[in-house]
Amino acid sequence: MKLNLKTINFQTRELTLKTEKARILDTLLIPAPLFKQTMEFIKANMTRIEQAKGYIFFKDCVSANSVVYLDVNYVRNRFRYYVKLADVDQVYDISEESASRTPRRLHRLTTHSLRHYAITSFSKQTNGNVVLTSRFARHASPETAMIYISTKKEELYKELDNIDMDSVERLKRSIMNIK
């Protein structure tokens, strides 16, 4: 991400960025502990950040013609490198998205799988509030967020066993009276 000092509102702890897929501007609140660490990092590296034209994720070595910020795929590539180094790289399938592309290996542990995990965890912490989860994930609709939320079969069965049928019947009756 091309994170620059200009993209941070230091009074409100908000970060403004352009979303990767939709290419629209979005604003996110930086959690207080992360904001504190970010401020410490900025203070400790202010000279380098200034040399990098305000970019917080800067390159150590910059030639005259190169960009000063890290490539947008830097984290993904470093993550992939360490997954392979730790020997936890598992391929679970091959994607043949289109006839014109070379089949692509689907890895179990990716930066995107971490996104799925974070969205699922947030959903559980908010008792399944899909609207709030959708905003957290920066999805345009709750339906999209629901694709990311993982539910294990055992969890589903447990919840089904715990359903209060009296509440379900009351809900059905109230819906019938409304119509």
3D architecture notes:
The chain is an alpha+beta fold and 179 residues long. It folds into three domains: 1-72, no CATH class; 79-109, no CATH class; 115-169, no CATH class. It is 47% helix and 12% strand. It has eight helices and five strands, in the order E-E-E-H-H-H-E-E-H-H-H-H-H. It has helices at 32-44, 46-51, 74-85, 111-125, 130-137, 142-148, 153-161, 165-178, and strands at 8-9, 14-18, 25-29, 91-95, 104-107. The strands form two sheets. Strands 1-2-3 form a three-stranded antiparallel beta sheet, with no helix packed on it. A two-stranded antiparallel sheet has the order 4-5. Helix 5 (130-137) packs across helix 6 (142-148). The longest helix has 15 residues, at 111-125. It starts with 7 loop residues before the first strand and ends with a helix. The mean pLDDT is 82.
Produce the secondary structure layout.
Blueprint: E1 8-9, E2 14-18, E3 25-29, H1 32-44, H2 46-51, H3 74-85, E4 91-95, E5 104-107, H4 111-125, H5 130-137, H6 142-148, H7 153-161, H8 165-178
Antiparallel strand pairs: 1-2, 2-3, 4-5
Helix pairs in contact: 4-5, 5-6
From the N-terminal CA to the C-terminal CA, the straight-line distance is 51 Å
Name the structural class.
Answer: alpha+beta
Gyration radius from CA atoms, angstroms: 22 Å
Can you give the helix content as a percent range? Answer: 40-55%
Number of strands: 5
**Please, how many helices?**
8
> What's the SSE pattern?
EEEHHHEEHHHHH
Shape verdict: extended
The main β sheet shows up as: 3 strands, antiparallel
Strand order of the largest sheet: 1-2-3
State the domain count. 3
User: Poorly predicted ranges (pLDDT <50, ≥5 residues)?
Assistant: none
Strand content: 5-15%
Mean pLDDT over all positions: 82
